[in-house]
Amino acid sequence: MTDDTGLLEHALGLLPRRKEGYTTDDNARALWTCVEWMKLSPDMAGEWLELADTYLAFLLWMQREDGSFHNNVAYDRRLEQEEPSDDCFGRTVWAAACAWLGLADDDRRMAAESLLIRSAQQVENLKYPRGWAYTLAAYSAILRDPLRQPVQGSRPDIEQRLQLRERVEWLEKKLLEQYKRHAAQGWRWFESSMTYGNGVLPWSLFLSYQVTGSEEARQAARESLDMLRKVMTSPEGRVRPVGNEAWASADHTSQWDQQPLEVMKLALACREAYLVEWKNEDADMVKRCREWFHGSNDCSVRIADIHEGSCCDGLTRSGPNRNRGAESTLSYLLTEAFYNETILLGREREAQVYSR
Fold this sequence. Notes:
Layout lengths: L10 E2 L2 E2 L5 E2 H17 L4 H18 L9 E2 L12 H17 L3 H14 L9 H16 L10 H8 L1 H19 L17 H13 L2 H17 L16 E2 L2 E2 L6 H18 L2 H14 L10 E2 L4 E2 L2 E3 L2 E3 L4 H30 L1
Antiparallel strand pairs: 1-2, 3-4, 5-6, 7-8, 9-10
Helix pairs in contact: 1-2, 1-3, 1-12, 2-4, 3-4, 3-5, 5-7, 5-8, 7-8, 8-9, 8-10, 9-10, 10-11, 10-12, 11-12
């Protein structure tokens, strides 16, 4: 799915659909995936790094002079007509933060740092919760790792240029206000419906809590994650993603079609919750998210191909969508990474408790 331009968006079965082109969304997710797996499989770091270079170069290419990002690109490298996307912006800022924190050499980190600094001028223009959430997570992750030094200048210099603490507090407040407007008894959520990529909302507040110490943020993160887990669990106890036919509300949840992205975002939020609160049910939910890809789902069918490292695009009433595009495959690979990281976190936690 990756060529010398970037990661292609769609596939017919296993074969890439070149005429569908590329998206910044997918190349940002791909860069994030490389960083996650470089930590878990250092023996393959060279292969992950080679891929990361392609995705990082794609993001540099797609950043406009005003710091925003173009998303959709044709196979012949023409930029397609589109409206700016907060979600694309946030995903790319998050991927840049992951690269800045996770890559070892300063030459590559300089590219990630450039993306972060140039994009900062657009943060106050974000209008939608998922854009806020990704950006909040990115800035919180940087502040959470105070030992990581910038490529140029000093740590206080980059924190000031990005206005990290001020923006974390501002974005956290925006999400909490959104939560208070919509949360009600029996519906502890940020919107009147659950649509797509839901897990990023509680996830970002668990991250910001580690920086601000806001108990309000931690409580909202916990309440909303518990709500999401409830909605995304079948009566049999399996993970059941919110279907994209009609999404979910206080009185209705759509079962079909189920998207791997939703499972990955739930695993992401539960992994972060586990790091903050060390609740076994969060670690167990990460495990169940992984199992969804391997057959513990409403169709009792494996949708991930462990030999190819790919994943079907979703589950429908009639079974798997056999196409294996970028989003679904990256969702599978990221969920596998979160599962392995959660196991390692648990072992480290047990060792700390035992040593006391």
